[in-house]
Write the structure tokens for this entry.
Amino acid sequence: MTQSVIEKLPEEFDTIYLAPEKRQDRPEFNRSLLEYQDALSICLSSVENTLPTEELSLESCLGRVLRHDQICSVHVPPWNRAMMDGYAVKASDVSRASSQEPAILSQIDDVPAGRMSSKRLGHGETIRIMTGACVPEGADAVIKVEVTRKTGDRVEFFEAVGENPYIIARGQDLSPGDTAVTVGSLITPAAMGVLAACGICRVTVSRKPEIAIIPTGTELAKPGQAIRPDQIYDINSLSLFGLCLSAGTAPVSAGIVQDRSGDLLAMLNRHVDKDLILLTGGVSVGDYDIVHETLVKAGVEEIFWRVKVQPGKPLFFGKRGKTLIFGLPGNPVSSFVNFHLFVRPVIDKLLGKREWGNEIASARVTNNRILKAGRRKFLRGKTKRTNTRLEVEALPEQRSGVFSPMLNTDALIEVPGDVQLLKSGEIVTVHLLNTRV
Ligand code: AMP
Ligand code: MG
């Protein structure tokens, strides 16, 4: 469903929107900032509905989110199933068997997987059976072939039934009425296997959220294109594209927008049908930062602007129709961190997942770090598991303008704003970054 576009582009939108001298007077520049948890709660409560659903075959649903409980309607396994190649027996017939005094039974049938024996086992009898075959009636154990010797129809057993009778009982794995996979689960390879075991071949999942990624910045150039001396390559389009893919969404790279309101409005108009728009850059209070004002001018309802976090303070969050709009900071580290803290939980909720955002854990920090009091910090960290404990190192490079240490980052260390010294040995909160594809 396409929403109405923004019809009127005021003339001044083709130039920088607000003159620097006028900016100083804007009251919103001085208002107090939202705390991280408050901003996150607001983001989540702005997601009113989960996305519509679609029905997919099992082959195409990896990484999707299940929208109905999947109830098993069969017994898994459908009959008592042999777990070994060997002989089906009555355990009591071989209870005294040993290597010196083997028990001796006579073989009355032979069942491979895929066939049922029509015979019922009596005392003194055994049936040759293969892994996966139906255990015949009357048998209550399988003895593996390695501890037997067969001579004609006579089978010697050199061991009694141990702790494991090598039978999985009918329905022991799943029974009719069992919930095989619950609503809100991510469909993993294991879930695909469980659904297949129940004979289910189609499932109802959330459709993928459609996301437009719009980088703003007159200095940006597309990787692969010739670059002027005053340009830098656009990182955010690609790093956010990867983050969006790994979050199970359908992103599009909209292309670079110059720091001009008119250009930004035109680009927004092209993406009014998206579930989510991720803008980057131009959202702070610099003279050429046109994003906040342009969004407000374009009829985007401002839900909040600026959060007391570092990195990522300039974050804008708003809504237009059903489209949620994030204005992320231009610094690639800041937008990456903001994605994990705010965008990922929103995506998870839109998708109907049971849990939203990254896993949060406690870890012992392994180095000292002096910090400036002020905003709540999310330091880049590298975790290590030692025996039973999770450890985390705060990486030496924490400036948000330097992106490459992100490669080595698998956690964000959350530090309250008043902490000025992070001491080695302290227990800290870490957000474990889940970006597996
Ligand atoms: P801004 O938020 O527009 O003030 O940008 C902050 C810093 O991030 C500036 O140094 C920008 O050049 C840089 N930056 C903004 N957008 C991008 C991007 N898409 N890729 C790489 N760097 C960017
Ligand atoms: Mg900029």
The helical segments are 20-23, 36-45, 189-197, 236-246, 261-270, 291-297, 332-351. Residues 217, 259, 281-282, 330 surround magnesium ion (ligand 2) (CB under 6 Å). Confidence is low (pLDDT under 50) at residues 1-23. The radius of gyration is 31 Å.
